[in-house]
């Protein structure tokens, strides 16, 4: 089985277990999903309603994670407002025992500081990791896990990170890229000099350890 922990698409085959990214206003929760308030779409006038819908859907039997949510410094949305809503979602993650899938742009230190302060019991996964090895080690040392997507196919920097870190700290995703999860698995297996079966086994172990529906 292949595991795609963050995607906007449906599974390509019955050999792929996908967690589809959903929003509180989505209408189809019939398959495994994650759900959260993405910083891009936060609005003062709807956020309380969205948080209420989020809390309801976190209790759905198909909900595997909260997210994506997080912090983004390149958008116009007030950063303090983003932090407030992110922290509210962290508390929901703890209440319903769901790991968090995190969107982070230029706010890694702030997210590390929040984790240090709140000391959550649930796992936090940085999705679509594309930064360098130094930051990857810092995040892992502070209790984060990293999810890798299509960038690993072309980015030497991301390939270097994969080569350097322990395989029990990673997940794999397609996000909204038009590539198959099989391609990403194969590339990571090649980088680590693993067989594809060994990689699939390790990611399955990681998945069972973190995700509990």
Task: Outline the structure in words.
Helix 6 packs across helix 7 (196-210). Strands 1-2-3-4-5-6-7-8 form an 8-stranded parallel β-sheet, with helices on both faces. The protein is 40% helix and 20% strand. The chain has helices at 47-57, 79-96, 108-118, 133-141, 156-164, 181-192, 196-210, and strands spanning 2-7, 16-22, 33-35, 63-72, 100-105, 124-126, 144-148, 170-172. It has one domain: TIM Barrel. The protein is an alpha/beta fold and 213 residues long.
**Which CATH top level class fits?**
Alpha Beta
CATH topology: TIM Barrel
**Mean pLDDT figure:** 96
Beta-strand proportion: 15-25%
Question: So what's the overall shape?
Answer: globular
Q: What's the CATH superfamily, by name?
A: Metal-dependent hydrolases
**Succession of helices and strands:** EEEHEHEHEHEHEHH
CATH architecture: Alpha-Beta Barrel
Give the distance, in angstroms, between the N- and C-terminal Cα atoms: 17 Å
Helicity range: 25-40%
The number of domains is 1
In short:
This protein has 213 residues and is an alpha/beta fold.
Task: Write the topology of this structure.
Layout: E1 2-7, E2 16-22, E3 33-35, H1 47-57, E4 63-72, H2 79-96, E5 100-105, H3 108-118, E6 124-126, H4 133-141, E7 144-148, H5 156-164, E8 170-172, H6 181-192, H7 196-210
Parallel strand pairs: 1-2, 2-3, 3-4, 4-5, 5-6, 6-7, 7-8
Helix pairs in contact: 6-7
């Amino acid at each position: 089985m292949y595991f795609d922990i963050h995607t906007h698409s449906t599974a390509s085959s019955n050999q792929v277990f996908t967690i589809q990214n959903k929003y509180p206003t989505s209408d189809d929760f019939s398959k495994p999903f994650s759900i959260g308030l993405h910083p891009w779409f936060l609005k003062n006038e709807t956020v309380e309603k969205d948080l209420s819908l989020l809390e309801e859907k976190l209790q759905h039997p198909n909900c595997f994670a909260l997210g994506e949510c997080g912090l983004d410094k390149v958008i116009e949305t007030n950063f303090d407002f983003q932090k407030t809503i992110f922290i509210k979602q962290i508390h929901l993650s703890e209440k319903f025992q769901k790991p968090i899938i995190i969107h982070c742009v230029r706010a890694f230190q702030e997210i590390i500081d929040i984790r240090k302060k709140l000391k959550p019991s649930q796992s936090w996964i940085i999705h679509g990791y594309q930064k360098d090895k130094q930051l990857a080690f810092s995040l892992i040392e502070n209790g984060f896990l990293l999810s890798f997507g299509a960038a690993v196919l072309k980015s030497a920097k991301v390939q270097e990170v994969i080569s350097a870190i322990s395989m029990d700290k990673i997940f794999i995703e397609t996000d909204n890229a038009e590539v198959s999860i099989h391609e990403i698995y194969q590339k990571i297996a090649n980088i680590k000099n693993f067989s594809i079966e060994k990689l699939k086994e390790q990611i399955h172990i990681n998945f069972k350890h973190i995700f509990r529906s």
